[in-house]
Each structure stands twice: as C-alpha cells, then as structure tokens.
Amino acid sequence: SCSSLGCFECCVKCLGVLPYASLFATILLYAGVALFCGCGHEALSGTVTILQNYFEVVRAPVETLDVLTMIDILKYVIYGIAAAFFVYGILLMVEGFFTTGAIRDLYGDFKITACGRCVSAWFIMLTYIFFLAWLGVTAFTSLPVFMYFNIWTICQNTTVVEGANLCLDLRQFGKGRARVAALVLDMTFHLFVCALAGAGAAVIAMVHYLMVLSANWAYVKDACRMQKYEDIKSKEEQELHDIHSTRSKERLNAYT
C-alpha cells in the first residue's frame, strides 16, 4: 500500500506497475487509427467534391448503388473502425496490466486460471486477424494514393506546360476554377497519403501487440507451471508432516 510510503516512493511504485510495452503499442494504435480515420474521412469528402463539381457525377436514386453511395458507406466503415479500435486498445491495456509481473508484486500472488490462459490466447488470435485486416486496409489505401499521385502529376504538368493537352486539362474549367480544382486535388492527395501513413502505423502497432501478447502468454504459461509445482510441493510437504505427526503419536503411545 502507498499509505506507508512517501510521495516519491509511491510514484515510483505506481510507475513500476505500468506495462510500458502495451502502453506504447496502444498510443501507436490510437495515433494510427486517428490519422487513418480523420484523414481518410476528409479525403473521401474531397473525392466527392471533385466528382460532383469537376466531373459532373450526380447522385443516383436511393435504391441504386453508385460511386457516391459507396463513398458514404466507406465513411460509416471509418466510424466503426474508430469506435472498435478505441475499445480494443482499452481491452489490450487491461490485459497488459493483469499479466505484467509488476501487478503480481503489488497485489501478491494470483492464481493463473484456465480462463486467463484462454483469454490470452484469444487476444493473440484476434490481434493476428486484425493485423491481417490492417495489411489489407493499407494495400487498399495505397490504390487511391497511387491514382491521385498520377493525376496530381498530370495536373502539375498540365498547369505548368503551356499548350499541353494531357489526360486531365484543368484549363477547361477556366482560370479560376482550374486553380480551385488543383488545390482540392492537391489537398485530397495529401490527405490520402496521411491516411496511408496512419494505416501503416496501425500495422506496426498490431505487430508490437503480437510481440507483447506472445511474451505475456509465455509468462502466463511459466507462471502456471510454477503454480502447479508449488501446489505439488505444498501437498508433498503436508503429507510428510502428517506422516511425521502420526509416527510421533505412535511412539508416544508406545512409550506411555
């Protein structure tokens, strides 16, 4: 208890309880997910603006699945990703707290149950699935980055080289609108790049979580073996004590 310690010693003891590996992975996960969701959402909004204002794409009826409706669906998927991984990061932090050795030193020995081992194994499996999912998200996000990079390069060449008539000639919108279109395209491209960086950070966080969870699983496994050894040793000592007590009583009875 910190009540018997000074302020400095109590702070040091509390800092020793923190699972720093899980904390680092959680911060990296939150930063990556926030960057991916925020920039991805704004990049999709910019894409809608470009399609509607400069390519004359109109929204189809409600029962028809068009490009704009698919972009709206992707926005809702981003909302779900943000909420889900916020909760998942908290769960992994809690798991890190309960499997670190500092918690055992603070609260005394705890029992490693079969449920605890199953929870650790379940987190490893789930994190590996999320790792593969984020790899897919990273690959999917790289597609619009590649596409926007090509268009952005063409637009740069078109607006700089006089008399060039390449794939996308922004001069057809007029001088003012061409400048606005170039700015929107440039902003959308950089937002997709930031979203790709966020997805990459989430992948690195998942890899870090896998290393942490694997180490925690090894600790739980060793602690379980040590617990079984201590139980067997305690049982054998109790049996030896009972045998010695019985023999002592028999000798005492024989003497009397």
Automatic annotation (TrEMBL):
The chain crosses the membrane at residues 76-98, 119-140, 189-219. InterPro entries: Myelin_PLP (IPR001614), Myelin_PLP_CS (IPR018237). It is found in: Cell projection, Dendritic spine; Membrane. Keywords: Membrane, Transmembrane, Transmembrane helix. It comes from the Eukaryota. PROSITE patterns: MYELIN_PLP_1. GO terms for cellular component: axonal growth cone; dendritic spine; filopodium; neuronal cell body; plasma membrane. One of its GO terms (biological process) is neuron projection development. It is a multi-pass membrane protein. PANTHER family: MYELIN PROTEOLIPID (PTHR11683), NEURONAL MEMBRANE GLYCOPROTEIN M6-A (PTHR11683:SF4). Belongs to the myelin proteolipid protein family. Interacts with OPRM1. Interacts with palmitoyltransferase ZDHHC17/HIP14; the interaction leads to palmitoylation of GPM6A. This is Neuronal membrane glycoprotein M6-a.
